[in-house]
Amino acid sequence: MNKKAFWVVFIVLAVIIIAVMFMGNGQSDTVSMGVIVPLTGTSSEAGNYAKRGVMLAVNYINNDDNKKIKIDPIIDDSHHDGDMAVSELHELIDTDHVKFVIGAYSSSVTAALAPVAEYNKVILISPASQADDITYSRNYVFRTQIAAMQDAQFLASTVFDRAKKERLDILTLDTYYRVSYLRDFLDAYTSLGGSIGSSKKFSANETDFRSFLMRSKDDGTKNILIIASADISADIMKEANDIGMKVQFYSPSVIESDQLLQSAGPAADGLIYPYPYDDLSTSTAHVQYQNSYSKAYGAKGEMIAANSYDAVMILSNCFEEVGTKTDDVANCLYNTKGYEGASGMITFDKNGDVSKPIIIKTVKDGKFTKLK
């Protein structure tokens, strides 16, 4: 073999070895990432917050010269519909070959996506769903939102500290997440010695709560827990106000939304609820997030956007550390401990869940305010 032929063979072999090593690490310059959230219709306010958080993180990553792997987001509108979301996930997997997805918002939709993601070894991270069993017995499903159990236990303790032995009446919208939340709340509240009065589950089509509220008023009820959507919760609060009922309302953390303030008006004042996100935090990560969010959108960042931002940023960190092979990234996520994110300190447990500090908030003069 002459010298020229030797160098040709050497260069070809070197290129092949480098290519094999590159492929073996599962890396690529750009990785596609699916996003499945409600952008229109029911829960579209929260879905668009999630989209904002995702895009804020994507833009940061794609403009960072130190990031070897960039992200190409593929955003789908689930319309808050489980069947549609599942169809979108199949398309992301089969057509776009996506292995990483942010979504969904509601627990029922995420619960529909989870088995599909698990079967196809697609990492699914929800920035909002709280129902307890979403992540159980699954290796590829995570969330940057706390589970219902932590939220409900904190609320139960808060209500008991304030209501003591006074009866608590409960109104619950009959949905997958809210029934799960009620179960966790009742277990915690009764174990503390709390007293439960009247309780009612209702469908989303129900609009008349006057008879329940009148009965509660006649019974001398001073505390009511509402586990419902923002619009229905607003209707209940206004109805109570119309009949002159003096009552302390409580709700889960998901109650915080502009829709509640717009629909309920002054009737929402005094509402107490837990919240696993402190928008007054002075942590470096949170301040940077708020500054970037304000610059990009001209508003203050909220929890769902922060959770979504963190989900993308943590995935990106894992891409840089271990590449983009699904199992390697999943292991990286499970080993993520004490990550200082925009939404707070994040450590994934064996179920892919997080635990975060919770504050108490209220509505005062038409604004969501930190109580303590």
What does this structure look like?
By secondary structure, the chain is an alpha/beta fold. The protein folds into two domains: 30-146 and 281-346, 3-Layer(aba) Sandwich (Rossmann fold), CATH 3.40.50.2300; 149-275, Response regulator (Rossmann fold, 3-Layer(aba) Sandwich), CATH 3.40.50. 46% of the residues lie in helices and 19% in strands. It has twelve helices and 14 strands. It has helices spanning 3-24, 44-62, 82-94, 107-119, 148-163, 176-191, 210-218, 230-242, 258-264, 284-297, 303-322, 326-334; strands spanning 30-37, 70-77, 100-103, 123-126, 141-143, 167-173, 195-202, 223-227, 248-250, 272-275, 339-341, 344-346, 359-364, 367-370. The chain has a five-stranded parallel sheet, sandwiched between helices. It has a four-stranded parallel sheet with strand order 7-6-8-9, sandwiched between helices. A three-stranded antiparallel sheet has the order 10-13-14. β3, α4 (107-119) and β4 form a beta-alpha-beta unit. α2 (44-62) packs parallel to α11, α5 (148-163) packs across α6 and α11 (303-322) packs across α12. The longest helix is centred in the first third of the chain and has 22 residues, at 3-24. The termini are far apart. 44% of the residues are buried. Mean pLDDT is 92; it is low at 6-10 and 14-28.
Annotation keywords:
372 residues, alpha/beta, Rossmann fold, 2 domains, 4-stranded parallel beta sheet, 12 helices, elongated
How is the biggest beta sheet arranged?
5 strands, parallel
Topology as a string of helices (H) and strands (E): HEHEHEHEEHEHEHEHEHEHHHEEEE
Rg is 24 Å
Span between termini: 80 Å
User: In percent, how much strand structure appears in the residues?
Assistant: 15-25%
What is the CATH class designation of the largest domain?
Answer: Alpha Beta
